[in-house]
User: What shape does this take?
Amino acid sequence: MFKTTIRCTFFIILSLWCLIPSHSAHAAEKWVNILAFFGTSVPEAKVSLDAIEKSYAQNGEAYITAYTSDIIRKKLEKQGQKILSVNAALNKASAMGFKNVRVQSFHVGAAEEFYQLQRMILKNIHSNPKRFTHVLLGYPLMSSGQDLYEVRDVLLQNLAANRKENEAVVFMGHGNHHGPGDIMLYALGKALQEKDDLIYVASVEGSNTFAKVLQNLKAKNIKKVWLQPFMIVAGDHARNDMAGPEPDSWLSQLQAAGIEGSVHMLGLGQMQGIQNIFLRHTKDAYDDMAKSKKSD
Ligand code: CO
Assistant: This one.
């Protein structure tokens, strides 16, 4: 009788013990997202990143924010703002007990910055083998034909509300002198023109130059042009290279050509349709970088 009571008490305690959620065991089964932004040091541009974070929170997704740009992180640190690198964010996820991580790239396309992100993740995994069970990488904004046309449609819904039919629109992408980024911007320009032949895409760097577009605008005798960033944030490039007072900014170049320029300062991250494409990429992520170790 006495023995049974002890045994019962023991089992009750054991069962209760099992019910107490152990923090790390709980976290180990769960997934955390690392939101890998290029980053921005322009305070007004941060609204785009805040809006993206909010969309993840509203979808019940746990996340850690990281900036891939060393220059921007260093600049912010001098101002007393500490932002994690992707490497530091992976370390933090592990320290919190997470074994399953999704890293979402917030780049426009798989170009220079995206490949750097891939290398950073692989380096972290290879330096800390067996730390994570899964490390999935969510692809950038424009990674498939479906993405291309979805992005095109989101842009068409987010033009300046008072743009008139005979007024042109020029989107400012980033572009690269190396790598495949220019091809995506070129494809986007073509996709937009299928719907509206007064919408153009040009870029700060690379082969899709503003000079080419300007020539076209002059040939078509366009009187007014809307400038809009095609970047996750409406940051430094948008505010200076596109809309700044310097004589080589796009706005100044338009004015010099006798064309009226207006600015629609809106980051891609502020558009709900763009947030939804990223959320879809995160949910559909299948590129498991933790598994790449085994096939080496
Ligand atoms: Co740049």
